[in-house]
Sequence to fold (457 residues):
Amino acid sequence: MKIIILGAGQVGSSLAANLCSEPNDITVVDQNPIVLQHLQDRYDLRTVVGHGSHPEVLEQAGAKDADMIIAITNSDETNIVACQIAYTLFGTPTKIARVRANQYQKEKQLFGDDAFPIDVIISPEKEVTAYIKNLIEFPGSLQVLDFAEGKVQLVAARAFYGGPLVGHRLAELPQQLRGIDTRIAAIFRRNDVIIPTGETVIEAGDDVFFIAAPKHIKAVMSEFRKLDGPHRNVIIAGGGNIGRQLAMALESTCSIKIIESNAARANDITEDFKHAFVLLGDAADEDLLREENIENTDVFCALTNADEANIISSMLAKRLGAKTVMSLINRAAYVDLVQRDSIDIAISPQQATIGSLLAHIRQGDVVKVHSLRRGAAEAMEAVAHGDAHSSQVIGKQVDDINLPSGVVIGAIVREDDVIMVHHDTVIKPEDHVILVVTDKRQVRDVEKLFQVNSTPA
Fold:
């Protein structure tokens, strides 16, 4: 697939890195030649220096024969205009744009072939807000990812000493759960990935990825760790788009305090809330955190635009007694330094956003993609089309499907039913199949499995 990416920021660069590991022809456009040179030195891609919405720049990037343009610069207006030009002048089939401003997003009639011809609108703030909200709703989780419109979830949880199943074989799990069906899809142990079998023994420190219906998540998690109580008291550092949206999403169920250092913004967002408190100050001010009873805080979320400020305030909040600290961190190198030891959960906005982009790039009918382990692995939802003659998966038991190494089918959603997969489960037409791909190099082979063949399978 020939793809043009406009914008070589954190999301654009991470997306290019993801797509270059697969058989794609990638061109990245940006006004910063240094950033582009860095990408070109590391990956097999083309770069073009220039303004992403200028016709001559798009032409130079190959818009005439591109399959897709992904406009993810820092300017909504540049992204919107670039898609318009790609459609009008070059007839680009698929146009994806990042649009942040709520003023644009709420006017749905602005987007479509009769107005601005954008096929898919991506909002990083909404993606990250939903991601954090899921983590807060399931205390102790490291990732909570929705599939099939929320009917089934993939959850990552760290195993600790004292968990009933820690030190035991997975074969004992059904007896422990007594009728609650789940599937352990993968285990990450230090730097190794384990495809689990019934004989696999859970060790303390394992990151366990399991699939279950939402109502069963807490019961399954309790097998690997002592469950934390519900999160009720939340402090959010940063009243920007993400902090504001998260506070709105949680205001009805949690006690919310927002710490904002900019007086004008603090005053502006105060009017948005009925119950949340907006505090003017520095989230790394120890006296302020003590005054706001940080030791009784269930979750401290550092969501400013500065990685360093987020890390420092989160580390301070943890030292002062906050039960769980989450920090928004753009730089991958920082994540490796602080995750586990200093900060409970490091949130990568680009990884949260990339999944929604990949769902529109994958071949076959892949309707959902989530990035795992900072892009090293993926979870995806693919729809099985065709019949036993035209499909490589329909009508077959899971054990008989030629799955690539390191790929696990975890669950099937069949209309309104969630079915945890066993070795003899048979896939039927229009099943939504939830898979975990522990090695991204196998993604293309998974896509081929779910493509309908014109000749008998």
About this structure: The chain is about 30% helix and 25% strand. The chain has a mean pLDDT of 89. The domain at 2-122 is CATH 3.40.50.720 (Rossmann fold).
